[in-house]
Known about the structure:
- The chain has 212 residues and is mostly helical.
- It contains 8 helices and no strands.
Amino acid sequence: MWRRNGLSIVLFCLMAIFLVAQALTGWRVHNEELNQHGVAALGFLDYLSTGHFSSATFENWESEFLQMGMYVLLTVRLRQEGSAESRPLNPAQEEDRIEPGRTPWPVRKGGLWAFLYGHSLAIAFFSLFAASFALHALGSWRAKCAENQLDGLLPPTFLGHLFSSDFWFESMQNWQSEFLAVLALVVLTIFLRQKDSPQSKAVEAPHSQTGD
């Protein structure tokens, strides 16, 4: 099981560890804010249902899924000479590697099922982005309402918050950093190598070689 699934197991464990760490530190930060306003601290489980936690969590998930969805689509048509993250410049150098095994059922079914399956990766990422965006918006609004309540101000309407600078500042500061990270990966793989990594060209490959 470890040999076949080691990468996904480690990544899931790292995600879970950092999510718990985020929840614990966010809980402490939120309670410090409540104490400054003379409000009783929340228990940990109560904190997990607050807008403070859900906004921070889904704000980051939203940007990650947008990044991956756009990356999947952009690499269909666009190329970067010398990058391990790009398809080869010459279509003749491309080969689909298909190992022996049972063909996925949507392909066997054909028609609309095959078409949807052929685009299912991008569909999945953008669906996850849409869900995360909606949950971020809801959590951010609830957090803003709670913040205004502590300050003795009227809570904003959901639509008012959705079109506010506060909400879009939260999103844009993450979106730009995600595309910066992808840009760095695309460009750095032109000149730099990591032995045995599928994200890198062979150590001996020339800088001009495009694709892995």
